[in-house]
Amino acid sequence: MSGTTHDAIVIGAGAAGLMAAITAGQRGLRVLVVDHANKVGKKILMSGGGRCNFTNTGTTPAHYLSANPHFCKSALARYTPWHFIELVERHGIAYHEKELGQLFCDDSSKQVVAMLLAECAAAGVEVRTHCSIERVEHLDDGRFRLHASQGRFVAPALVVASGGLSIPSMGASGFGYALARQFGHAVLPTRAGLVPLTLTGIHAERLQDLAGVSLPVEARCNGARFRNFMLVTHRGISGPSILQISNFWQPGDDLRLDLLPGIDVEAQLGEWQAGRRDAELKTLLAELMPKRFAQRLCEHWIASKPMRQYTPRELQAICGQLQDWPLVASGTEGYRTAEVTLGGVETDGLSSATMMSRHVPGLYFVGEVVDVTGWLGGYNFQWAWASGHAAGSAIAA
Fold first, then answer.
1. CA atoms within 13 A on the CB side of 316
2. Residue 2: which pLDDT band, with cuts at 50, 70 and 90?
3. Residue 284 near residue 307 (C-beta atoms within 8 A)
4. How many other C-beta atoms can be found within 10 angstroms of the C-beta atom of residue 5?
5. What is the pTM of this model?
């Protein structure tokens, strides 16, 4: 017996997998989704602090990192944030824009998962959790046979939406990469993305006890720059600006912070020296940034004294420190806390229009398993919806 037959099998019940299944199911295909986890959409549930940053209205291909920056264009153009917003509104889910085009549920990310499951049910999609895959075969007739903990399943189309390596406590694994290699695909080196950075040595010693302090910064590395909040942690630094820059930083790279973004520091220092001559620098800086951070800065990096005592040259040096503060990070917190995985299945082996393998007809890769990684702020979900929709639209009926 070959196994239970479907038109398509989707491995992974996350955002990309469910979207692929829904799209194919709406076209009348018999679709099975299998996932080894105990529930669907685990990453959806925990995202955005439990409110799911489900898309970004400003999504463009420029918001994605890939060895081929053009690869994501086709899928993103054909399934836009507005398509997903229409789906959310049709299900009566209230949402709001937090900042920079980021859309969140007003209430709970559970609503997004419930919406996707309702769409699966309406499209006749079968979803099986607690279903581990032991091996996948490519049969002589071109079909795929999955040997799983709940039986054997056969289909002419197989969609791999198994995600990356980020957050292993939620079941993340390298299964999709192994499957890609099995079928002749190259897998680019992977690393943790959108992840806090760790500090060691002097920076760790000087900042460690400031854990919990947050301030706006502009983080810069390798030509990329992001302005948002930085959070000092017990292990290093986090916050939106740091998570964003982590995608562009690797150990040894030069990382710089503007500690007073949006402020003309040179003019501010001149103003203080003219009008508040007896005030100490650390006192004045505490008006523009958290007091504890200002004091620590002046204890170790900038000598604090009354403004009238600084020479023009010293003020110039202070200006440079505040606007271009070098921070030596030692590493990242790794996949344990990373929101995404950089790298993955090389896009050269996939069709950008359909996400289908160029090596094996009927085999598709979608979502995070592919070498396409978005910025923080809903972009990775939009890639999941768009790539899933592309594959679901292309599976032969």
1. 3
2. low
3. yes
4. 14
5. 0.96
